[in-house]
Design brief:
heterotrimer; A mainly alpha; B alpha+beta; C mainly alpha; A: mainly alpha; MetI-like fold; 11 helices; 71% helix; B: alpha+beta; Rossmann fold; OB fold (Dihydrolipoamide Acetyltransferase, E2P); 2 domains; six-stranded mixed beta sheet; five-stranded antiparallel beta sheet; elongated
């Protein structure tokens, strides 16, 4: 690139803007973390002393534990179900062509585009009328609907990195479809499957809106947080937020490591196109 | 063509990190000439073109356009329009909008713009597509749009980066004619980068052959073909037979060179005075080789070979032969010339050539 | 590709279909039916009458709320797109490959943090005796009332959609053919002008999709309007949550929800048509 085609000042200004943008994005997260250790009840500057009193308060709060228990149970069940369903759909998209396939794929991937308020209301009404509402499995049902698309996308991406003739080669060598699935496809997709398990769990972990509609009295943790939000200033939110953040991040990082380590194809990220070779 | 060259590359070096793409380039480009820069990938030809356009900056050296140094000039202030290999037509604009782009950038007002664009659309015979989206045109039509877009400002020089490489064979030949005629009509300088010998030799006034960032030879088609300057050029052309050996005798009218395949009489090259014992390489063009089933007459260099195969190239054929010490020989002859010869693989054939048909390489 | 239906094929394809049909499609269809139910004596009864529709769509308050929500989301889409663009542009064109991958990774992190907790943090930042006012007080400014206002709501909307918009714009910008930019420079187009003449048109699809997603997200969000915007006057999403939780007026909530869906479909269709429309014949 010709040096005189660039303007140093503009380049630095843009980089600064990117840094500021990240500042905006992470400021609330960082603040939450910092203030969870703040002795003062009303978070402001200057900071009060360092204190773990809020952590103790949360530790001793049975409501929080109940919410956490529900969240974990829901998270685990949802991640397994969503991954199984999502993988199946990804494989279907990968291998088969059939009449109405576009509708099938659209149905599978549409849920994240519907506003959660509407989804929540629809679920509440429907599950109530079928007497499936207000229980812990109500949240599970709703979350599988919302998380399966993510699992499908992750598995589909991984499948697109596989040479499509691998499966046929296995058949050619005497493997039945089931055997090929067991010995070729699933091993290849393992990183994606684990990644989907973690990511769907993380998504379920943070989902508050639909859960708020359908959980009734079996509130998950995010729904409890929503409740806290309506009350007075409550530093417990910071504690819960910090905890949830660490948990989610661990899951996501694990998923990323898995995807990058096992993947034979180059890792994602931007690639330049259209470059003229020198 | 006037005295002062239009473009001068003065000691230009371009490094990308540790890799030297262009190594001390000294090149003059004359006004009104069609110059081709030829070489295989990675030889530095495209980098040279891009430096002229301002898309790369030279690491060392100076580039002058019309006598003025342009190293520090950003791309949009130079008048060096370029046609890309991919054509780089704007897919979100119509044909007309593509062609008028640079006029719009210069602030030419609308009626004047429309007039000039229409003239060029007519000239390139694409007026009927004026309001079409460029994505809906054929390869040849898109080529013409790219040319019109670059030439609408009537520049002094046009740069072309392998624009024909994506076209099929017969379209390529047609576009070559279009380009040659265009250049002659407009009288402007064309700098044309390619890896194809046939393109370079058929269109250009002068050809620059580059390898590994260096200029191997500059000259017109005849010169390069008959008198390649270095072994690289000879090999690159692919039509020369190369013999390397040591000088065993020097006389006023001939040099005798002893090679593993035999001893041969070679015409002396004033550019390369030789003494006994010197290493020397000489070449013989493949169309200067005679073939016969019986030993040739005296006075000619000769070599006994066996036929390896025959390759058809339109009206001629290239016969591949193998001689002593596994030396490979090529002879290109018309079908008439080949006539009655027995050319079954394995047949013994005499290859001969006169000393006048040889050329000693001035550089090893 | 096998044409016949096999048990093997069904084992993998059916679960998704059955689940989404039963628990995604059916509830949405049920919502339509629900909007025609009647409410008598605080109980819902299956019915087919247009009362809910007439009642809701006949109210001026509803339309005011509708237009307000539409306007707020449209503004959010425009503002977020404009604020995100320099960031996406910087990441796409001014960072090294490694730095870019890190930037993308960092940009994905917010999706896995609790939106609620971030909004709570913003409450802390923006409140009258919060962090920002405390800082401003040090230089003798303020205090400014930033909560319970449109400004607060916009900050919330940004928190919700900024990372997604940046990522969507980024993926589009990164695939812009670099030779088009070089060609524009070559044809006398300067740096800044090239951004508007070439980069933006070439990445139009991604930019429009990004704005569309921002619109969809903010249109349905109730957290920002409620906790940073004060909740009064309400948005459509707040109307739904209020109507649902207080009393059994689900049919009315269904009417609001369906109006929202219809609006979103229309806007999505318009946006995608615009994004993919070509110049010229």
């Amino acid at each position: 690139m010709n040096d005189f085609n660039r303007n140093r000042l503009v380049d630095w200004a843009l980089k600064l803007y990117v840094a500021l943008s990240f500042g905006f994005i992470f400021a609330p997260i960082a603040a939450s973390f910092v203030f969870s250790f703040n002795a003062d009840r009303f978070p402001s500057l200057p900071l009060g002393g360092f204190s773990t009193v809020w952590y103790e308060a949360v530790w001793n709060d049975p409501l929080v534990w109940e919410g956490l228990r529900n969240t974990l149970i829901v998270g685990i069940v949802v991640s397994v179900l969503a991954t199984v369903i999502g993988f199946g759909a990804a494989y279907t998209d990968f291998r088969y062509r059939f009449f109405g396939k576009t509708v099938y794929v659209a149905l599978a991937l549409l849920p994240p585009t519907i506003p959660v308020v509407i989804l929540g209301l629809a679920m509440l009404a429907f599950l109530s009328s079928t007497h499936l509402s207000g229980a812990i499995y109500s949240v599970m049902i709703a979350h599988v609907v919302m998380c399966a698309p993510f699992a499908m996308a992750i598995c589909r991406l991984r499948l697109s990195q596989m040479d499509p003739s691998l499966e046929a080669a296995a058949w050619n060598l005497g493997a039945t479809e089931w055997m090929a699935m067991r010995h070729v496809i699933i091993p290849f997709c393992k990183p994606a499957i684990f990644s989907a398990l973690f990511i769907t769990m993380a998504v379920s972990f943070d989902e508050f809106a639909v859960a708020w509609f359908v959980s009734g009295l079996n509130e998950t943790l995010p729904v409890k947080v929503l409740g806290f939000l309506q009350g007075q200033v409550s530093p417990r939110i910071n504690v819960i937020g910090t905890f949830v953040f660490i948990a989610s991040m661990t899951l996501v990082i694990l998923a990323q490591i898995l995807l990058m380590k096992r993947s034979a194809a180059p890792a994602g990220g931007a690639k330049e196109t259209g470059a003229v070779t020198p | 063509m006037t005295d002062q060259p239009l473009v001068v590359f003065d000691g230009v070096v371009k490094r990308f990190g540790g890799f030297v793409a262009v190594d001390k380039l000294d090149l003059d480009i004359r006004k009104g000439e069609f110059l081709a820069i030829m070489g295989s990938s990675g030889c530095g030809k495209t980098t040279t073109l891009r430096m002229l356009a301002g898309l790369e900056a030279p690491t060392e050296g100076e580039i002058r356009l019309g006598g003025k140094r342009i190293n520090d000039l950003p791309t949009w202030r130079r008048d060096t329009p370029m046609v890309w290999q991919s054509l780089a037509l704007f897919p979100f604009l119509t044909v007309r909008e593509n062609v008028e782009f640079s006029l719009r950038m210069r602030g030419v007002e609308r009626t004047e713009r429309r007039k000039r664009v229409d003239t060029w659309l007519e000239r390139m015979q694409i007026a009927e597509f004026a309001d079409r989206n460029v994505a809906h045109l054929s390869g040849g039509q898109r080529q013409r749009v790219a040319l019109a877009r670059s030439l609408v400002t009537e520049p002094e020089i046009l740069l072309l980066d392998e624009p024909l490489s994506a076209l099929d064979a017969h379209l390529k030949v047609r576009m070559q004619t279009v380009l040659s005629n265009l250049q002659r009509e407009l009288g402007i300088t064309f700098v044309y980068v390619t890896h194809s010998q046939s393109e370079a030799f058929s269109m250009a006034d002068r050809v620059v052959i580059m390898s590994r960032g260096r200029v191997e030879q500059i000259g017109n088609a005849q010169e390069i073909y008959r008198t390649p300057r270095t072994r690289f050029v000879a090999e690159f052309l692919g039509s020369s037979n190369i013999f390397a050996g040591n000088v065993s005798n020097v006389s006023s009218h001939a040099v005798t060179i002893s090679t593993p395949a035999g001893e041969f009489e070679v015409a002396p090259n004033a550019a390369r005075p030789l003494a006994k014992g010197d290493k020397a390489t000489f070449v013989v063009s493949d169309d200067r080789m005679h073939l016969s089933n019986s030993p040739p007459v005296n006075g000619l260099n000769r070599l006994e070979t066996s036929v390896v195969g025959e390759e058809f190239v339109g009206a001629t054929a290239i016969i591949h032969l193998e001689g002593a010490e596994r030396i490979e020989i090529k002879a290109q002859k018309s079908h008439d010339e080949l006539g009655e010869l027995d050319l079954e693989p394995g047949t013994k054939v005499w290859v001969s050539w006169s000393p006048e048909a040889t050329h000693i390489l001035p550089r090893e | 590709m096998r044409k016949s239906i096999t048990l093997y094929g069904l084992t993998f394809s059916l679960p998704m279909f059955v689940w989404q049909a039963a628990f995604f499609l059916a509830p949405l269809l049920f919502l339509i039916a629900l909007s025609f139910w009647s409410v008598r004596n605080f109980r819902m009864e299956p019915d087919f009458n247009l009362e809910n529709w007439i009642r809701m769509l006949g109210r001026a308050v509803f339309w005011q709320t509708y237009l307000r929500t539409l306007l707020l989301s449209a503004s959010a889409a425009v503002i977020t797109s404009a604020l995100a663009f320099p960031c996406a542009y910087g990441i796409a064109f001014k960072l090294s490959d490694t730095a870019r991958r890190w930037a993308i990774f960092l940009m994905v992190i917010p999706f896995f943090t609790s939106y609620l907790v971030r909004i709570y943090s913003w409450q802390i930042f923006l409140s009258d005796n919060g962090i920002i006012n405390a800082l401003l007080a040090k230089v003798g400014l303020g205090p400014f009332a930033m909560l319970n206002s449109v400004f607060g709501m916009m900050i919330g909307y940004l928190t919700l959609s900024f990372p997604l918009v940046v990522l969507l714009q980024l993926f589009s910008l990164v695939f812009v053919d670099k030779t088009l930019i070089e060609a524009a420079h070559n044809l006398r187009c300067g740096r800044l002008r090239t951004v508007f003449e070439v980069v933006v048109p070439a990445s139009k699809v991604g930019l429009v999709i990004a704005a569309l997603f921002c619109f969809i997200l903010t249109f349905g969000d109730f957290v920002s309007p409620l906790y940073l915007g004060g909740g009064d006057p309400p948005t459509l999403s707040i109307l739904i949550t209020d109507t649902t939780k207080s009393g059994q007026q689900w049919p009315r909530a269904a009417v609001i929800a369906l109006t929202m869906i219809a609006t979103l479909l229309a806007i999505a269709f318009a946006a995608v048509s615009f994004a993919y429309r070509e110049r010229g014949r």
